[in-house]
TrEMBL record:
InterPro entries in the record: GTP-CH-I_C/QueF, GTP-CH-I_N, GTP_CycHdrlase_I, GTP_CycHdrlase_I_CS, GTP_CycHdrlase_I_dom
Organism: Pseudarthrobacter chlorophenolicus (strain ATCC 700700 / DSM 12829 / CIP 107037 / JCM 12360 / KCTC 9906 / NCIMB 13794 / A6) (Arthrobacter chlorophenolicus)
Protein name, UniProt field: GTP cyclohydrolase 1
Domain GTP cyclohydrolase I: 34-211
Superkingdom: Bacteria
Amino acid sequence: MTSFDDDAVSASAAYPAEDGSAHAPHHKVDRPRIEAAVREILLAIGEDPDRGGLIDTPKRVAKAYAEVFAGLHQDPADVLSTTFELDHEELVLVKDIPFYSTCEHHLVPFHGVAHVGYIPSHDGRVTGLSKLARLVDIYARRPQVQERLTTEIVEALVRHLKPRGAIVVVECEHMCMSMRGIRKPGAKTVTSAVRGQLHDPATRAEAMSLILGR
Ligand SMILES: Nc1nc2c(ncn2[C@@H]2O[C@H](COP(=O)(O)OP(=O)(O)OP(=O)(O)O)[C@@H](O)[C@H]2O)c(=O)[nH]1
Ligand SMILES: [Zn+2]
């Protein structure tokens, strides 16, 4: 049995904490430790972790967590370093990017869509469209709150693409508000972050009309 998640090990070695984010990873995904903790949780809720249906659950959860939290060990710089020469001075927007994240307060999912747009820099370079969706996943696959997820995506765009403007809008349902606690399934939380020329009211209105025009 390997002690650490293989993908996480190889990715984390190259990840500098250059963005100063609270998410700079300090540890690799330690699967045996997760397994031991899940066994403890099962005992604590009054379950029998040795019964047939649960015997492999700690291992499964460890494997799932390595995937769900893989973003802790991935560097947005790697994704956004792929750029192309293309003279486009207007808004580029990828909307309705579906994602799943994990509420850092309750460790249950929140999920929804992200809309990510930017006005390319004057240097005539744009990034690949899929890279914007990859960027969303890198930050979503961490323990998160929606506000920070939104800010981290826009800040990564600014840092790595040097765009003239950037906008990120995130719409989510939080399972911690649906399946427990206040129990309001269907309630949506919307967060946004804008930078640079997207602060201009007309440019921002254009972006928002594209985002909302479903
Ligand atoms: N701002 C923000 N709050 C969040 C997010 N995800 C979960 N929360 C909230 O985090 C809060 C935690 O409140 P606490 O009073 O510490 O915990 P709690 O007793 O479980 O709260 P309830 O969910 O109201 O039962 C709750 O109001 C959640 O709705 C998020 O992404 N952003
Ligand atoms: Zn929560």
